[in-house]
Please model this.
Amino acid sequence: MSPSNKNGSAGSGEDQPIDRLAELEQEVSPDFLRAVRKKIYRRTATGQVLAFSWNLPKVILLEMLTLIGGLVTGKTSKVKP
Model:
């Protein structure tokens, strides 16, 4: 199948919009790439801190319940020789 324009006929040798855009391509500056990477790293770090802050109370509560459960049942983790 060949590409067609709005009228349904095949391209007639006129420049397609994609071809015109390809001619406008420019090299990306290193400063722009550095700024994008910095934003990505900042969002990643923020997400990790948020996940840690969200899970930390659950982990502490679980450890406290495990400790209390061990004290109540008298189980210890000591290895007897």
Summary: Helices lie at 17-23, 30-73. The mean pLDDT is 81. The first helix runs from residue 17 to 23.
